[in-house]
Amino acid sequence: MNVRGACWLLSGLLMGCVSAAGQTGEVAADPCDALPEGAGQLVEHGLSDPTPLGVSGQEAIDATGGSGSFDVAWANGATSAVSWSLAADTESSPVVAYIDRRSACDDAYLQVLVLGHLSSADGVLGQEQRGALYRGDDGVTHLRLSFLFDENPFPDVYAGGGSGDGCAGCGGDFELSVELRWGAGESTPRGHVDLIENGTLLGEVGAF
After folding, report:
1. What is the pTM of this model?
2. Mean pLDDT throughout 93-114?
3. What single string gives the DSSP state of each residue in 20-37?
4. Burial tier of 21 (Cβ tally within 10 Å: 0-12, 13-18, 19+)
5. pLDDT (mean) for 181-203
6. Residue 29 has what pLDDT?
7. Where are the alpha helices (DSSP H) in the chain?
8. Spatial CA neighbour of 140 closest among 98, 189, 97, 182
9. Pairing between strand 67-74 and 42-45?
């Protein structure tokens, strides 16, 4: 079989193939490894309505404990005590949506729009943000909240594209992305905090 024929044969499995020059392609990423995050068809539900997942949107929020605290170990050696709370974002729509990916990925999710409030004793985190809570059919729950900053909150860890402590004319260019995960039956989240500049990931700056 010639090289062109081999490419066509493998195109359904690989992104690219071995060419005559010896260049090797990459295996395509599995979309089922990612949260749906707005992808696929959404079936809307009321906040307290029963859903095919077996829990309502409010019950999915309640299963996290609704509020609590955890300690973040920052990359600069500091530690922050963080309190958190979640409430349904009833001003946004759809508040609750069922996402069925069983045909393609053999899983399903509830997407619940929430208002998340994180407050750290040192003031690094202290804002209310909108986010989407994802409750999987395995009982695991995920939430991502983003906090924007005019200046780099961790110049001692990642200098970024500016001078290392912010840059002139850079308004809201830095973001702390807080990824929270509740295991099935758990009320204390685990996760990490990433530092992002203008959409580019600089690296992880905290873990909990």
Report:
1. 0.78
2. 93
3. TT----EEPP-GGGS--T
4. exposed
5. 95
6. 74
7. 3-10, 57-62, 102-105
8. 182
9. unpaired
